[in-house]
Amino acid sequence: MNQLIQDYKTLLVGEPRLRPVDAAMQLGVSEAELLYAQLDEPVTASITRLDEAQLPEILKSLKKLGKVMALTRNGSVVNEIKGVYEKLYVSENNGKLSGIAINPGGIDLRLFLYRWQSAFLVETERHTSFQFFDKHGCAVHKVYTTADSDFNELVNIKARYQSTSSRPLTVVPFESAEVELTSPSTSQLDNFRTQWGELEDVHHFPKLLALHQLERLQALELVGSPWSFELQNFALEDIFQQAKTFKQEIMVFVGNQGAVQIFSGKVDNLKQVGSWYNVLDPDFNLHIKADELTRAFVVRKPTDNGDTVVTSIEFFDANRETVLTLFGRRIEGKKQTNEWQALCERLIHKGQVAA
To answer: Where is the Haemin-degrading HemS/ChuX domain (predicted)?
Structure first.
């Protein structure tokens, strides 16, 4: 018997409800490796390997399933949206494949497919899911069936895209690298601040960081007022409660190296469960491991030819990685609501008082 399978079975005896992602961590392997090991010897699920060469076709076919639940997570935050997996467009730029699904209020995605390496169909007693992984075997995106999914179409998708190859799964061990931060001169920093103030599109911000060779968190630390304010004292429950109280439509961005998933709408059912802070609404669930969000900033960026300033709240973990970003929802070309701006102003004031 495969040793990994034996170890997995032993682990489940003591923790029968252990999630695969947590089991993989305890076993010292990636989640993809744990699924791959079960291809011939299922433990908790029936596993079918999918043909990753047909990733765009697989993703586009998911629309036929009807209502599904899309899940994208990083180490600290999980974003789950129920809806139809539709309006997905795939393109290639400089040899890099990417996908986009613009469905505000529904399943809204930005997919960096060139970082995806393996795909599996996972069938358990509770649900069936399409699971996609990067070269490290870490999950980048998952799509689950719901009670309203078309299970006849599921059978067709499985037959059409299951892999016929017997090639082994290759996983590259993850190596955490020390972040090397540059030290801009006074003139370089002044130039960066000037160009920040001249932004005409928030989507140009990553290019601005690359141009000045600045890491995102470092840029927020350096630029200061009026563009960036670190929150010395912040509470997730206060932010979400204010959004609920003022009936604010917000945008919630959660991403990893392979995908970003965006929720747009109002939040209602807010609940703390253990170390997790949660939004538990019918078609949107958000799970945040609040104690892993170590730093937060209110960030302003000019857009729409510089006439409109867009304000966000950005959260980082101990590894300086962005794990959650909140925006006040707005229509392109329009300003964010006064209520959202007031919410952010209160956070800035509270943070300055705390400092």
So the answer is: 214-347
Task: Compute the average pLDDT of residues 99-113.
Answer: 96
Does one domain contain both 133 and 197?
no
Please tell me whether residue 282 adopts helix, strand or coil conformation.
coil
Tokens of 27: 């076993």
Answer yes or no: do 151 and 254 share one domain: no
343 and 197 housed in the same domain = yes
* Domain span at 22: 3-86+118-161
The span from the first CA to the last CA of the chain, in angstroms, equals 59
Q: In sequence order, which ranges of 142-202 are alpha helices (DSSP H)?
A: 151-161, 186-197
Question: Could you tell me the CA-to-CA distances from 298 to 154, 314, 331 in Å, in that order?
Answer: 43, 6, 20
Amino acid at 52: E
CA distance 264 to 249: 7
175 lies in some domain: no
Per residue in 174-192, pLDDT (tens digit) is 777 666 788 899 999 999 9
Rounded CA separation 294/85 (Å) = 33
- Give the model's pLDDT for residue 351: 62
**Interval 52-82: pLDDT, tens:** 999 999 999 999 999 999 999 999 999 999 9
The overall pTM is greater than 0.90: yes
Residue 243 lies in a domain: yes
Q: Omega into 184 within 30° of 0, i.e. cis? A: no
Contact residues for 271 (Cβ-Cβ < 8 A; gap 6+) = 277, 278, 280
